Amino acid sequence: MAIKVVATNRKARHEYDIGESYEAGLVLVGTEVKSLRSGNCSLADGYAVIRNGEAILRGVHIAPYKEGSIHNVDPDRDRLLLLHRREIVRLATKIKERGHTLIPLRLYFKRGHAKIELGLAKGRKTYDKRRKLREEDEKRRTQEALKRYTRGQKI
Length: 155
Prior knowledge:
Layout: E1 3-8, H1 10-15, E2 16-26, H2 32-37, E3 41-42, E4 47-51, E5 54-58, E6 61-62, E7 79-82, H3 85-98, E8 101-110, E9 113-123, H4 126-151
Antiparallel strand pairs: 1-8, 2-7, 2-9, 3-6, 4-5, 5-7, 8-9
């Protein structure tokens, strides 16, 4: 089962605390698939909403296919997400009661089908972001020190 990752949202892990993650299919039109296969996608401003029992992906930019013609569609259009009904209901309740949001984490092809990984996210405060960066820096430094120590070098 080969997975070809098209785009990742690296900023999401910094901006949000990601709880659960879900895999959803994407309803694409025409030349969007060819454009995705060439890697022309941006997840930076994307988010998902649930309206009328359907999950909709908004703010994801899929660039028009260069060799396409008049059949290219709007690159910033809303796209339908394919999720099971019970997953949609579960996500809708979590979004309403806890103040979470659905953020796209990565877009990839799995067995020839376009899939998107959605994360149930809660926004971080600025001080939380700084604390997390500080913790990661400390962790990296201790790993380097342990690595040098085990090689027999002085710290």
